[in-house]
């Protein structure tokens, strides 16, 4: 027996967060947002959705405005036949942050989300405050400053994600 849960039902389990949809780069993009502070974009890996971050979202929302993006082809975002190049998906993210009114964001991703986050930092360095990747490592292109890049290997933990902005730490630990 297969049980499916809707975003509308699941979001009720994460107080302070809302489901949002907007058309970006000719696709309907789903994202979940909550919190106050500097913007932090989270991008889950394949085949995950925003729910992959549901345990850490409220903790991060204590100091960040958290925006968890379901990139094209994943979750409740559109699944077009093409446009899945990392550079194009990074453009989706860039247009989303412009739509949301941000000039600069911190961005973190896991698995394919890390690839997209890295592509975002490479293609939009002036829009990138900090980047965190999990499950993805690469050499840094010359035009991306070392101050922008933090690679954490295969483990994404709240203590590491929360530390990537200078001087900000969260005392609580993820369960």
CATH superfamily: Alpha/Beta hydrolase fold, catalytic domain
Low-confidence stretches: 145-175
- What is the helix content? 10-25%
- What's the alpha carbon Rg, rounded to whole Å? 15 Å
Q: Which outline best applies?
A: globular
Q: Under CATH, the topology is which?
A: Rossmann fold
Task: Note the run of SSEs as H and E.
Answer: HEEEHEHEHEEH
Strand order of the largest sheet: 1-2-4-3-5-6-7
Instruction: Return the structural class.
Output: alpha/beta
**How many domains?**
1
CATH class categorisation? Alpha Beta
Strand content: 25-35%
Number of helices: 5
Overall number of strands: 7
Please outline the major beta sheet.
7 strands, mixed
């Amino acid at each position: 027996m297969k049980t499916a849960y809707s975003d509308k039902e699941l979001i009720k389990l994460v107080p302070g967060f809302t489901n949002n949809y907007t058309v970006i780069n000719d696709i309907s993009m789903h994202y979940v947002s909550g919190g106050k502070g500097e913007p932090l974009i989270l991008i889950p890996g394949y085949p995950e959705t925003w729910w992959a971050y549901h345990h850490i979202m409220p903790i991060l929302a204590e100091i960040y405005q958290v925006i968890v993006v379901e990139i094209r082809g994943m979750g409740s975002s559109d699944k077009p036949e093409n446009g899945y190049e990392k550079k194009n998906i990074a453009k989706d993210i860039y247009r989303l942050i412009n739509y949301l009114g941000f000039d600069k964001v911190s961005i973190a991703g896991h698995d394919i989300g890390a690839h997209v986050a890295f592509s975002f930092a490479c293609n939009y360095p002036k829009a990138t405050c900090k980047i965190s990747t999990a499950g993805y490592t690469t050499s840094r292109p010359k035009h991306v400053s070392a101050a922008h890049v933090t690679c954490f290997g295969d483990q994404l933990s709240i203590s590491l994600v929360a530390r990537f902005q200078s001087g900000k730490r969260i005392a609580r630990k993820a369960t």
